[in-house]
Specification:
Blueprint: E1 13-19, E2 28-34, H1 52-65, E3 68-74, H2 76-82, H3 84-97, E4 105-109, E5 121-124, H4 132-155, H5 161-164, H6 170-179
Parallel strand pairs: 1-4, 4-5
Antiparallel strand pairs: 1-2, 2-3
Helix pairs in contact: 1-4, 2-3
C-alpha cells in the first residue's frame, strides 16, 4: 500500500515513533523526522514489515533527504524510575526537542502521547503503516536501537542481544535464569525469576 507523506497540511510536520517498549533490556528509543514535501520512497513502510538490510538501506535515504531528524534515548535505569510509558514520552520529547528545524505539527504513532509544549499533535494508530514521516521515524528508532543493542551485546554476550535485541525470547529468558540480570536490564518489569520459559 502506498503511504501518504504526512497527516496534516503543515509543511514541517514531524513523524514520531519509538522502538523497544516491550523489551526486557536496553533503552527505549524514539525518533522524530520531518520530510520534504517532495519526498517519495517505494520501499518505505512500517519497519516491522522490513528486513534488517532493507531498514539499513532506507535509513541512508532518510538521513540524506530529511529536512530534519533526531533520535532520543532513555536508559533502563530511567525506565525503572518513571515507568516505560513515561520513559517513552521522554524519549519522544527528547527527539522532538533536538530537531534542527522546529516542527509545526507532530504525528505520533499509537494512541497516547504527552503533549509537547506549543506544538499541536495527532495520535495515529498504526501510523507507521499510513504515513511516510512516521514510517521514517520507525526506521530510525528501530535501527538506532538495534545498533545500541549490538554494542551492548558485546559487553554481555551471554544474552544474545545481537539477535533478540533485548526482547523476551526463550534464549534471553534462559540466559537471565542462568546468569542473572545485568545493569542494562529493566528491573521494574514483571519478569523476575522464576521465569516462565517457552
Amino acid at each position: 500500500m502506498k503511504l501518504d507523506l504526512s497527516y496534516s497540511s503543515y509543511t514541517c510536520e514531524a513523524g514520531v515513533d519509538e522502538a523497544g517498549r516491550g523489551c526486557l533490556a536496553g533503552p527505549v528509543v524514539a525518533a522524530a523526522v520531518i520530510l520534504p514535501i517532495t519526498f517519495t520512497h517505494e520501499q518505505l513502510t512500517d519497519s516491522k514489515k522490513l528486513t534488517h538490510q532493507q531498514r539499513i538501506r532506507i535509513r541512508t535515504d532518510i538521513l540524506a533527504e530529511a529536512i530534519a531528524w533526531n533520535v532520543g534515548m532513555i536508559s533502563a535505569p530511567r525506565i525503572d524510575q518513571v515507568n516505560i510509558l513515561n520513559a517513552t514520552y521522554e524519549a519522544m520529547h527528547e527527539a522532538i526537542s533536538g530537531l534542527t528545524t522546529p516542527a509545526e505539527f507532530l504525528s505520533i504513532d499509537g494512541n497516547r502521547f504527552r503533549p509537547y509544549p506549543s506544538i499541536p499533535h495527532a495520535c495515529i494508530i498504526k501510523g507507521d503503516g499510513k504515513y511516510l514521516n512516521i514510517a521514517a521515524a520507525s526506521i530510525l528508532a528501530k535501527t538506532y536501537r538495534d545498533d545500541i543493542m549490538q554494542m551492548l551485546g558485546q559487553e554481555y554476550p551471554m544474552y544474545g542481544w545481537e539477535s533478540n535485541k533485548g526482547y523476551p525470547t526463550k534464549k534471553h529468558k534462559e540466559a537471565i535464569r542462568d546468569h542473572g540480570p545485568c545493569r542494562y536490564h529493566r528491573m521494574s518489569f514483571n519478569w523476575q525469576l522464576p521465569l516462565t520459559l517457552f
